[in-house]
Amino acid sequence: MTTNQWTQIGFFFVLLLLLVKPLGWYMARVYEHKPFFLGKWFGWLERLVYKICGVRPEEEMDWKGYALAMLIFNVVGGLILYAIERLQNHLPLNPAGQSAVPPDLAMNTAISFITNTNWQNYGGESTMSYFTQMAGLAVHNFLSAASGMATLAAFIRGFARKETKLLGNFWVDMTRTTLYILMPICVAIALALISRGIPQTFSNYPSATLVQPTSYDQPVTNAQGTPVTVDGKPQVTHVAVTEQSLAVGPVASQIAIKQFGTNGGGFYNANSANPYENPDPLTDLIEMLALLVVGFALCYTFGVMVGDKRQGWAVLFAMLLLLVPMVFLCVHSEQAGNPLLNHLTVGKEGASLNDGNMEGKEVRFGIVNSGLWATITTGTSCGAVNSMHDSFTPLGGFVPLWMLMLGEVAPGGVGSGLYVMIIFAIVAVFVAGLMVGRTPEYLGKKIQSYEMKMASLVILIPPMAILALTAIGVVTDAGRAGVSNPGAHGFSEILYAFTSQVANNGSAFAGLNGNTPFYNLMGSVAMWFGRFWLAIPCLAIAGSLARKKIVPQSSGTLPTHTVLFIIMLVSTVLIVGALTFFPALALGPIVEHLKMIHF
Amino acid sequence: MADHTKARKLFETEITRKAVIESFKKLTPGHMIKNPVMFTVYVGSILTTGLWIQALAGKGEAAPGFIFAVSLWLWFTVLFANFAEAMAEGRGKAQADTLRKSRQEVKAKKLAKPDKNAKATEVLSGDLRKGDVVLVEAGDFIPADGEVVVGVAMVDESAITGESAPVVRESGGDRSAVTGGTRVISDWLVVQVSSNPGESFLDRMISMVEGAKRQKTPNEIALNILLAALTIVFLVVCATLLPFSIFSVFVSGSGQVVTVTVLVALFVCLAPTTIGGLLSAIGIAGMDRMIQANVIAMSGRAVEAAGDVDVLLLDKTGTITLGNRQATELIPASGVDVKDLAEAAQLSSLSDETPEGRSIVVLAKEKYGLRGHDIQDLKATFVPFTAQTRMSGVDIGKRAIRKGAAEAIEKYVKEEGGKYPEDVRTGVEAISRRGGTPLVVAEGKKVLGVIHLKDIVKGGIQERFAELRRMGIKTVMITGDNPLTAAAIAAEAGVDDFLAQATPEAKLKLIRESQAGGRLVAMAGDGTNDAPALAQADVAVAMNTGTQAAKEAGNMVDLDSNPTKLIEVVKIGKQLLMTRGSLTTFSIANDVAKYFAIIPAAFALTYPELNALNIMRLATPQSAILSAVIFNAVIIVFLVPLALKGVQYRPASASRLLRDNFIIYGLGGIIVPFVGIKAIDLILVALGLVK
Amino acid sequence: MLKETLIQLRLSFLFVIVFTVITGLVYPGVVTLLGQVLFPRQSNGSLIVVDGKTVGSELIGQPFDDAKYFWSRPSATSPYAYNAANSGGSNSGPTNPDFIKTVQGRIDALKKADPEMADAPVPMDLVTASGSGLDPHISPAAAEYQVARVAKARGLDPAKVRELVAQNTQGRWLGFIGDPGVNVLKLNLALDALGTSK
Q1: H helix runs in B164-295, sequence order
Q2: Whether residue A219 sits in one domain with residue A277
Q3: How far apart are CA B72 and CA B84, in angstroms?
Q4: For C96, which of A141, A210, A489 is closest by C-beta distance?
Q5: Residues of B annotated catalytic, as ranges
Q6: Domain count of chain A?
Q7: What subunits touch chain A, counting only 3 or more CB pairs under 8 A?
Q8: In this structure, is residue A503 part of a structural domain?
Q9: Which of C27, C54, C62 to probe the A interface (max A CBs under 10 A)?
Q10: What is the C-alpha separation between A548 and A164, in angstroms, rounded?
Q11: Residues C124, A355: C-beta atoms closer than 8 Å
Q12: What is the pLDDT of residues A357-411, one digit of tens each?
């Protein structure tokens, strides 16, 4: 790695940390219902929403009520989205005449968007009408993020409050998150992105005349659509291309929320690698900050809300410890490059340009911003990509896969990452508490068998789902059919697909062809479990904790803001991840790496 | 009979022998299912045995020798875990047997009514019911737990307490409870039986130590959930490895699919068998340690709660201070020679047999060189203390010497026509402020001066409180003294807080307030008026010498009746949790090395490149897998002593303890198996057991 | 519970509708309005217009394989390279033998186009497909690799070509963020604008 690469990574994290406190403070004001300027300006809108929907904002819910509202809302949102997709050919704003989305794909897409995963088994341009994109998918970029953050707010209240059943009002948290946090900041981000060249228009694709016309061979097919062969050779026709159709659209507004809400569903197929989504190093920096900042800032919000900011910083540093070394591993591996290619590009004198692995990467971002992005986009549940993970070197590709396997906690999706991280903290506290001879406490709340039961579920479900679904994927013909690369890499593709969907990330080893009934169905299961089967036990824990007293601190209490505890927390996350996935990783990226270096 | 107070040797031959037999007897599914982690190993053992038989029949998935070796060691794993449990139970049983010897059926003299001279019928102790009244005379065993209704006697309680000196038991007051199985050695008692057969104190003790009624404690349940979850995860990890292996063979076009034997071996190595196998032994051993400290816990929950205590309520008298005050200083009134005061003080105390009185005589002798007088020679008349006069003294001829509380003497002197000097008044106040008790001495109408009686704080008590503070426990002294006195003593003893002029209601209120603030409260008590507070406290240690009411309200009984025992109780509670936590960490940390042993071995044929992960350089795939399995089994036996003795506990802050245990059991847990597995591999190769 | 569920169902339905209006219509509408007013050129795709004819976008690459043009990076878009309506990468795994063969083919093509460079090391970005398939840039090294060929094909002084390369190089932001890249379309347009193409 070069000095410049170190500097870029360092600069990025410094910027990020500078943003944590102001944003974290602001979000705490929103969730604690303390006054702030936007509340004054848009209070009328908030009250209007309540009035139209019939929300009684002063009525708080217990954990079951909160979970019920959250679930029903997501089910209803998902069904409406499904209906829109299925009926888009009868709905307005369909100039391209897209037909109805097939049922399996429609279901996968609906679940994908309500779970904040934004796994895309479709090409946006060729499948979805404008109406579906705007009134369906784009809306859930906001609402799924808000749903995660609202759940977190309720979860934190479980720690902050004592001897109560109430965790807040789901509808109020949703509304305030969307109106005061997500939308205003996204408008600002979108404008910054437009200024650097990201399109924002409703007009048609402009067409450009190619400077040098090109051509391609198109296979000839018969009426049934099967390729025609003559003497065993496929017949082709030569097609000349002289025009380049430039796909523009209302891009910037969607990119802002897809990053800021850690959704990751791009406007274009190539996501943030597409120059129209991410034209230069500055937009890249903005987009990276946007996708990471909420996750980290929420740690600060957490600290403020539980009345001890050190607790928030401790969790934040634990997340950094999980994340930053992986950035270096990824950038280092990509910079070291692919020996199989490197020996091809070497000149006569034996000199090599040592460019690192550039397959699937953009020149303007280079190795460092590709590796950095890949790590943070999987550290969060964003899943937007600015380079193709499938083409990373085995160890470089291991990094995003590993970040997903850790359970999306560094810092994870907006809201969902922190509540899962706190579950890990609860487990760490439990083991640590036993080691110091005391019934474990976290933030003054005693951790007992009910909390452990729920925490075990949270830790148990993702690996079980990932491994079981991958197992099904690798032994069935339908699963194997999707694989695009041979050998151990094919295994990694299937493993990555299910890991990403359970983790609600949405990035992929995109060589895998996921738009088949098998992957659409399995993926839906993965995403659904990964989201709600974690959120519900988390809310249950919050409900149980809220009812408890807060035990005062003493020197017999295990402090949870110290370096020692941070190490303990990081170890817990790492050891759970490593012990669960080591065999799978050994058969995927690890063996591929060993084969590659011994070619 | 006092032998159970000594710490038992860790591996007594007899207990060990029985434990070995027991570990085979425990191999029934009905027993195994109680421990989910070990049950999975049990199933694995049966499965591999089946595979071995299949291999013998010539249709095996691997060489029969290899499957046999794996299967054998899996059985050992199960047996070792059973052995650990049996050892702990055996030690408990041995304890119980000792106790049981004292519970022979004895003949009891049942009285028709609570009167020594009432008509007595001979019945067997087993037939006595709650409420029956019995007469126990010198030489008799007390047939059942009960309350003394009439009489005073010396009772030998060594069977229960191990303390050979007999104790006084009398009706009324705080020394009225007697325990079945103890023996009256002088005089007689009329006892009202307070428990039905099988419910007596001794019975409860026996069933507790035998573990028959052992319920899982809250932390144990929570830990079990975590362990079960981990076990399920590893089950899925290993089960899915089969399809993964099928796929890998398919895409690499070489090697063979991993065998079920290897997968079972991997699973058993990964599952938290070390802690799973030792968990119940740790719990039983914790109880056992309590009993060795001469404390009987009524439930495992109470032992565990002891580790969580935040606030400790201690009675001043007898716990923090010696039971008695001692004279330390004589302050004469102006114009009075200190020698005169000393003489008067001494004379007035000659017949005063209270410890305070004796200490005045000693002080006069040691500090002022006054020889003792014989009260007979002086022809003196002793004037005893009465509640009305609130003073005592002596009349020698015309000399009337009195000593007593300041107000009482003031009243007395004024009645005699004298006057109460101002400097005595200030002296009295000064002593009160320093936490002492002033006694004013007067002769006739003349006030001679003040005796300073001081509460003597027990030696070493300050260090103990400092220890408690390091453990994060707040100490509160309970006393009937006025706040001034209480504050002075609290400061001297180094307690964190005090409750002065404590009434039973005030104690109860203090406990409730602490609990409302989320704190766990421990207290020791003996009197009937302690009962409400004991019932309210989370950890309540009743003194064995205390009343039946107190014993029933508490959840532990200290047979030594030593209130500072609370500190031991807290330590034992913490030790119990720490042992569980540390071994859990150790068990999980072990998995890292096992992966490095087994994964390269399991896929040696499919992906020879994975041998790069064989960082221990184990000889062959078979030896790697076998070494891991053997290590996994043997480590249980190696840790049995630790499980039984418990992890060492020193009073220190939570952070320090965590750091130390994290390094020892976490880091150690990662390193030890690397060394162990490599060593076993070398031995296997040296013995020529693997190719 | 049932009643509660029904209430929440109705509420959910209304909530989705309300927020569809707010986030699905109002939000993109406001952003579009602001974007079109404040940054009209960028909002519409940063198009390059030469003689009234749109020849491309300065952000989107185009395919070149003529010796007189600087070649862009390989593109894996389908059905033809640099299809701006269907961006995407090859998703070839690093150890995929087909992928290695493809790269070898590209190296051979480069060397064939300029035999003089046959012994020089080949810049990696010039033989690997970009993530988007629309990468407008090549690395300065990749440009340098092609300077001699382009200069020869156009009969230009290589120094002149280098000058144009430098003019069309987008540096790092603030001097250290990102990697420098040469905008191939703009560079080739600049070359064409010299009017010396044969």
Answers
A1: 201-210, 218-252, 260-270, 273-292
A2: no
A3: 18
A4: A489
A5: 315
A6: 2
A7: B, C
A8: no
A9: C27
A10: 8
A11: yes
A12: 999 999 999 999 999 999 999 999 999 999 999 999 999 999 999 999 998 899 9
